[in-house]
Amino acid sequence: DCGFIQNPDRQAYCRAISGGGSSHCGFIRDGDMQARCRAETGGGSGQCGFIQNPDKQAYCRATTGGGSGQCGFIRDSDLQAMCRAETGGGSGQCGFIRDRDMQAACRAKTR
Length: 111
Known about the structure:
mainly alpha
């Protein structure tokens, strides 16, 4: 459930990717997160090129068709676990995420 997420950008992202659609992406202030949100809610991997952070860009590419092989390029352990969960590892990978907001978003997306 996205309602437990404290960070407003992450809450809007969670709502968008768990069925709310791309209209929620417009509420996200962080540019990288907004591009990732648009990519995952129908914009496709072309949106990933707008992401400045290399870890987030690899995550975006993996979750929009690049596959789990892209997850290995991610240095941030929480983001890597979320990537693996979304590209075939399932919700069991969410337990490796230390950030509570990110863990909640992971569970919402992989349920």
